[in-house]
Amino acid sequence: MNNPNNPRRLRCAVYTRKSTQEGLEREYNSIEAQRDAGQAYIASRRCEGWIPVGDDYDDAGFSAATMLRPALQRLLSDIRSGKIDVVLVYKLDRLSRSLRDFVHLYWEVMQENNVAFVSITQHFNTADAIGKLMMNIMMSFAEFDRDLDVDRARDKMIASKKKGLWMHGVPPLGYDLKNRRHRRLVPDPKEAPLVRWIFEQVAEGVPTAQLVAKLRSRGATSKFWTTGNGREIVGKPIDKSLLYKMLANRTYLGELRHGTDWFSSAHEPIIDPDLWARAQAATETRVRALTAPDASKIPFPLRGLVFATDGRAMTPWHTTKRNGRTYRYYVHTRALHESAKLLKLPRVPAGELEAAIIEQLRLVLRTPELISAILPQAAALDPDLDEPKIMVSMLRLHEIWEYLAGHEQTQMLQLLIERIVVHEDRAELRLRPMGLTSFVRELETHEGIEESA
After folding, report:
1. Does a structural domain hold residue 209?
2. In the β-sheet with 347-349, what is the strand arrangement from edge to edge?
3. Which of 76, 106, 235, 425 shows a CA-CA span of 20 to 30 A to 259?
4. CATH number (domain holding residue 42)
C-alpha cells in the first residue's frame, strides 16, 4: 500500500510536435513552449511523486497523419521497456489527429503497459472515468477537424480542375504547362503531332506490336520533364502498356479528370472527337483480349515484377512432363541463353514464390503502421489521394481476395507491386506508391462481391 507521505515515483515524459519547420529558428519556439508547459505541470504534481524523465521527445516538422515520427517511435519503445509511467502532451492533437491511430497508441501501448495519459490544456487525464470520456470526445473532434481539412482540399482541387488548372504533376505526353504557377495545359509543338500520329495509326488498324516498333525506330519516348525542384524525369521508350494508357486518356480531348468525373473544355484538345472514336473502336477488341482471362496461357501473376539481385529480370518459364503435369518457374534471363548450371543462376518455383508474396502483401495491407508509411509517398505524387478510403480498402482486401478471379488477382498485384528482388534466402517486396489510387478504384468494382460474401 502506497504511503501518502512517501508516494510512489511516477516517471513522466513530455511529447511535443510541430507540423512544419517554420518558426523553429526563433529564440523561443512552439516546441519549447509545449515542453515548458509539460514540465510545469509535472512540477505541480511533484507532491504526488511525479518526476520528469531525462529524455526529450520532440518531433519538429512531422505531420500527425503518420505514426512514423522519430521521437514518437522512441517514446513508444521506452513505454514498452517500462521506462515511463505518464505521458503528457500540450493538446491531444499533438499526439494524433486520427482516432484510429490514437486508439492504437492508447489501448494497445499505454494501457497494456499501465501508462497514464495527460492532455495539459484540455484538463483531463486517463486516471479517472471523466478523463477517459473527455479523451474520447476530444479525439472525435480532432478527427472531425482533420476530415474537414481533407474535404476542403478536395473541394479546392475540384474547383481548380473545373477552371482548367492541371493538378496532377507531370503533364501527359503532348502537353506542356503554359505557366507553372497557374498550371494550364497547352499543346507542345513537338510532342502533340506525335500523339496525333499514334491515334491515327491505331485508328487505321496498325497492330500494336508494329506500332511500338515504329515508335522505337523513331526514338519516341514518354514525357521528359523537369520538376519545380529541378529533378529530371527521363523519358522511356513507349511500350504497349503506355500506349494503351495514352489511348484511354481523355485529357487529349481537352478534359480533366477528378476521380471518375471528367470536366470538359478545360484546355485545347490534341485529338478531335472523330479520331478519338475511331481509335477507341479499333482498340476495343484488343483491350478485351488483354484483360480477359485466357485459359490457353500458363498463368504467371508476377510476370515482369521478379528480378534477381544483379538487377536482371527473371523470366516466366514452364515445362510439361510426360505425365501431363506442368511445372512453372521464374528463371534468370541469362539462364535461358547460357548454361544455368555453369552460371549458378536462380530458378525459383513459381507457385512457392507467388504464395509467399501474396501472403506477405495481404499481411502488409492489414497493418495500419505499414500502410501509414506508404500513404505519404503516394499523397506527394497524387493530390487526389483519399487516405481514409485507401486505408479501409487495404484493410478489407483479404476479405474478398479469394472471391477474385485469377486475372483480377493478377491485376491487383501488378497495380500494387513495383518490384520483387529474389535473394538466396528471401524475397524482397517493394510496393508501388502511385498504384494505391488505381488499386482502390479497381477494388471498388468488387464491392458487390464483398457485401454478398
Report:
1. yes
2. 314-320, 326-332, 347-349
3. 235
4. 3.40.50.1390
Burial level of 442, CB count in 10 A (0-12/13-18/19+)?
middle
Residues near 31 by beta carbon (within 8 Å), at least 6 away in sequence: 16, 17, 18, 24, 58, 60
Structure-block grid coordinates of residue 301: 501473376
For 115, counting Cβ atoms within 10 Å of its Cβ (0-12 exposed, 13-18 middle, 19+ buried), the class is: buried
Residue 446 grid coordinates: 468488387
Task: Identify the sign of the CA torsion 393, 246, 275, 253.
Answer: positive
Structural domains of the chain, count: 3
Instruction: State whether 44 and 149 are in the same domain.
Output: yes
The cell for 70 is 522519430
Q: What 8-state DSSP symbol labels residue 294?
A: -
In a domain, 300, yes or no: no
**Residues 219 and 252 both lie in one domain:** yes
The backbone region for 308, taken as left when phi is positive above 0, alpha when psi lies in -120 to 50, beta otherwise, is beta
Alpha carbon separation from 251 to 99, 161, 263 (Å, rounded): 38, 12, 9
Looking up cell 504511503 gives: 3
Report for 17-21, 32-36, 311-315, 330-334: range of highest mean pLDDT: 32-36
432 located within any domain: yes
Cell of 323: 505425365
Q: Which residues are within 8 A (CB) of 299 and not within 5 positions of it... i.e. 6 or more apart?
A: 406, 410
Task: Give mean pLDDT, residues 238-254.
Answer: 86
Distances (CA, A) of 250 to 116, 258, 280: 55, 12, 11
> What is the extent of the structural domain holding 148?
10-156
Q: Which three cell numbers stand for residue 84?
A: 515511463
Judge if 148 and 179 occupy the same domain: no
Q: Is the pTM higher than 0.85?
A: no
Within this chain, do residues 145 and 179 fall inside the same structural domain, yes or no?
Answer: no
Helix (H, G, I), strand (E, B) or coil at 230: coil
Residue 77 CA: distances (Å) to CA of 63, 91, 115, 222 = 20, 22, 13, 46
Query: What is the Cα–Cα distance from 265 to 183, expressed in whole angstroms?
Result: 15
- The C-alpha atoms of residue 155 and residue 9 are separated, in whole angstroms, by 51
Dist CA 375 CA 389 (whole Å): 11
**Parallel, antiparallel or unpaired: strands 50-52 and 57-60:** unpaired
